[in-house]
Amino acid sequence: SQELEQSPQSLIVQEGKNLTINCTSSKTLYGLYWYKQKYGEGLIFLMMLQKGGEEKSHEKITAKLDEKKQQSSLHITASQPSHAGIYLCGADGGGSNYKLTFGKGTLLTVNP
Amino acid sequence: NAGVTQTPKFQVLKTGQSMTLQCAQDMNHNSMYWYRQDPGMGLRLIYYSASEGTTDKGEVPNGYNVSRLNKREFSLRLESAAPSQTSVYFCASSVAGGPREQFFGPGTRLTVL
What we know:
The complex is a heterodimer.
Chain A: E1 4-7, E2 10-14, E3 19-25, E4 31-37, E5 43-49, E6 55-58, E7 61-65, E8 71-76, E9 85-92, E10 100-102, E11 106-111
Parallel strand pairs in A: 2-11
Antiparallel strand pairs in A: 1-3, 3-8, 4-5, 4-9, 6-7, 7-8, 9-10, 9-11
Chain B: E1 4-7, E2 10-13, E3 19-25, E4 31-38, E5 42-49, E6 56-57, E7 64-68, E8 74-78, E9 87-94, E10 103-104, E11 108-112
Parallel strand pairs in B: 2-11
Antiparallel strand pairs in B: 1-3, 3-8, 4-5, 4-9, 5-6, 7-8, 9-10, 9-11
């Protein structure tokens, strides 16, 4: 079965700093999904990556999928308190059952 | 559109009691999922329904049953609750045959005493 490892597990940054969260898969990624979760709430979809080398951006968040399709990174530029929360990556391992496997998440704290 | 809705938001049960968690989506999605989220364990798939009329076990199905009532609704039942089932439960849905982005409900926080 596919496993996703996220690093770091938690991260504390000062407002305005840049940061990167990584997601490494034990198998080839057919699709990689980034979600954000605020405490006590559901998951909000951020971005989906499918092609090796693909890069997508939304506001100050950029996600990349490496060429070998086994690792993705999420980069936040000039972090703000509104970026705080848990970031989870989810992986599509292919097949027809549409299941996603999730990493354990990265807890981001942004201090003003 | 309400998206994915879940009821109840909070529930406290005693060991051995039963309950059903309700989930509904108004996005005309074919596939629906139930997850549990526990500290240090991440999101784990309990059951899923790839399409109306089908259900399959996920990673942690023991102690749970599901019903895909129609295309919109997917319920999760705990027949005899145990303290190990204390968790936050999320329902999600996705389209079939295309990008597999899943849309999540707000969650149900369940405590079993």
